Amino acid sequence: MTFARLASLASHALALTATAMAVAAQAQEWPQRPIRIVVPFAAGSSPDILARIVNDKLAARIGQPLIVDNKPGAGGNTGTDQVSKAQPDGYTFLLSVNAPLVYNTILYKNLPYDPFKDLVPVSLAATTPNVCAVSNSMNVDSVKGWLDAMKRNPGKFNFASTGNGSISHLGVELVKLKTNSFAVHIPYASSGQAVTAIIQGDVQYACLPPVTVMPQAKAGRLKALAVTSAERSALLPDLPTLRESGLPDIQAVPWFAYMAPKGTPPEIVQRMSREIAAALKEPETLKRLQTAYFDPVGSTPEALSKFMGEELRRWKPVIERAGIKPDN
Asked: What radius of gyration, in Å, describes the C-alpha atoms of the chain?
């Protein structure tokens, strides 16, 4: 090997070492300014509520303010794409949900980002069961009554969701498929808007997060019928599951995960993951989460990566078999 070649290799090695040292120093000094948490849905949506609950204790733990930045649009794709292209400096994170992080890779042919390549997992923060609710105008008080009404009136009803390809969309499409019923899908920018649509009679039913459904159900403005989880929720013990109500193959649960742009220093990702998990366990945070019907998780990045892969494998054949498209 020539002297010039050896000198070149040595120079390259020094450059790599310097870069590694700079990244390590950056991670040790992080954070030195406020951190942006992008929520790709509107204010008042479930991920927005979760972010604001967790932010209080998380900010205290890391020593800098966390700013929620709502970037709704395209079923969560707009904000998620922005984070995938953000500077990976540890000052931009994403709090997103099932569809933009997994399902949309199946539903959209030209997704502008790849969540498995352009983002890195940080933590699976929480889950929550969707609640299937109907308009009071339907005059039903059970899942059986709801399904019977749909079968008797094909094409008469509309249902709401939090966006094309969201779990609130896919869950109802599965119900339609299993019951051979039909209703028109009307997507909304947030669960709050979707619930308002039920109350106003613009749609007749939906399966949405309980944080927006249950206050309206308790006020008598709509009727909550069942949860979409495999088992009854400890936070909603009086509501049966769809499985109990005669739909054994239906399980559609929203989940919420923190992600970061690809290239974010691993030390920062790992610390953020640890701090999120710790913040979720704070007694005050836990109480607020349970009041909003969230089941906190707080996983490692590795566990979230595995979980996302499992979700992809579980839902891909279901979506393809049901023929679900993003414009349904």
From this structure: 22
Q: Are strands 92-97 and 66-70 parallel, antiparallel or unpaired?
A: unpaired
Burial class (CB in 10 A: 0-12, 13-18, 19+), 231: exposed
Q: What is the pLDDT of residues 226-237, one digit of tens each?
A: 999 989 999 999
Where do you find CATH 3.40.190.10 in the chain? 131-227
Q: Identify the architecture of domain 34-127+254-322 in CATH.
A: 3-Layer(aba) Sandwich (3.40)
Longest CA span, the chain: 87
pLDDT band at 10 (very low <50, low <70, confident <90, very high): low
pLDDT at 249: 79
Other CB atoms within 10 Å distance of the CB of residue 212? 25
Backbone angles phi, psi at 256, to 5 degrees: -130, 130
pLDDT digit string (tens) for 77-126? 999 999 999 999 999 999 999 999 999 999 998 999 999 999 999 999 99
